Structure formats: structure tokens, C-alpha cells
Amino acid sequence: MKEVLINNKRFKNLIAFQSENSNKPFLNHMKECMSIELNKNDIVVDIGAYIGEYSVYAIDQGVKKVISYEATPSTFNVLNRNKRGNMIINNLAVVSDDKKKTKLHISKGIGVTNSIVKSDRKSHFIEIDCIKYDNAVKEATVVKIDVEGAEYDYNIIHDNLRAIILEFHPINNIDWKKNAKKIIQDINNAGFKTIIEPTFKSGWNLTGSFLR
């Protein structure tokens, strides 16, 4: 893979990854992220920040602070170079319990599917530091979660959150879709309105946004 500098209407001087067999750099889909209007008092926590597209977007919207978590060391290096404004970046995995170390399973390519959840697509693992989800979001008013399957173990809903942006991921050997629908129902029961509801019809329809 190689690094490419992005300069367009949305991003200025953003470093992104481009795979050897692609003719353009990879950028995460932002529709659900942008469906939540941000304000100057928001503290945004970006879990699975990757190279920081949403973190940078939130800073550009003038939020109070962004706290970003990216587990993969090589990706964190790019996130660090994309850092701007009041972004606090952490090279940590976010886990559901109190453990201090965890395995990060590494996939081939640009690292967008690296995960603490093991799958057949992962070639090897590294051991990394981690933080409990509850501690990661304790200041947050808005959280974005894109963690390649680890989302099913999180206690996602916290009283301090006014918005949740959440991508679900297919996981082998579990009824992940049933689990995802249960999480959505729990979010709605906690007083959140669904802004964009995932339909699960394709890989582009796995993310939801919720506001209260």
C-alpha cells in the first residue's frame, strides 16, 4: 500500500492509504457520521478512528474536543500526522472489560478490517494496549464506533451520550444480525431517535445513527 494526500471540499491535507490494486485512496463512508449535527460543546469520541476522517470532520465542525482511538500502530502513525486542532489521539484498542492487553488480528491490505475479533481473513496478530469502553466514553456527548465486530460486547448506551454512530459487522458463528437489531432496540428504548437505520441489505447498509 502507499500513502496519498487528499485535498478536496471535505478534507484538506489528509493522508490516506491506497492499496496496490486500487486507482484511488480508501476513505470511510461518512453519510451516517454527517447525519448528526455537531455543536461547539460536543466532546466526540471516535472509536476505530482509522486515519481520522471523522475526527478531522468533527474538529472542522468546531467541537470542543475529539478523543480518537486507533489500535493498529501503522494506521495510528497516519492518524497522528492527520491530527489537528483539539484532537487527542490514543494508540489503544477499546474493549468491553478491564484487561490491559489484547490481541489485534491483522488483515491483509490497508488495515481497515484489523480487529480484536478473530476471523479467517486475518493473517496474524499482535499484542496491544487497551482501554475499557466505559472509560473511553465517560466524557463523550457523541460517539462513533467502527470496530469490526467488537461492538457486540460493548455496553454502548451511557447517560452522557446524546448521539451514537454505530457500524455493525458480520461475524461468523453468531447471529450477528439478531444481536445488531437488539442493540438498536436498546438504543431506541433509551430515548434515542433513529436518524439513519441500517437495513443490512449490503455492506453499505450496516451503519446507523441515533440522536436524543
Describe the protein's topology:
Elements: E1 2-7, E2 12-18, H1 31-34, E3 43-47, H2 53-60, E4 65-69, H3 73-82, E5 87-90, E6 93-95, E7 101-107, E8 122-132, H4 133-136, E9 142-145, E10 163-167, H5 176-189, E11 193-196, E12 207-211
Parallel strand pairs: 3-4, 3-9, 4-5, 6-8, 9-10
Antiparallel strand pairs: 1-2, 7-8, 10-12, 11-12
Description:
The longest helix is centred in the last third of the chain and has 14 residues. Strand 1 and strand 2 form a beta hairpin. The N and C termini lie far apart (40 Å). The chain is an alpha/beta fold. The strands form 3 sheets. A 7-stranded mixed β-sheet has the order 5-4-3-9-10-12-11, sandwiched between helices.
Q: What ranges have pLDDT less than 50 throughout 5 or more consecutive residues? A: none
Alpha-carbon distance between the two ends: 40 Å
Helical element count? 5
Tell me the strand percentage band: 25-35%
Notable features of this structure?
seven-stranded mixed beta sheet; 5 helices; 12 strands
Short description:
19% of the residues lie in helices and 31% in strands.
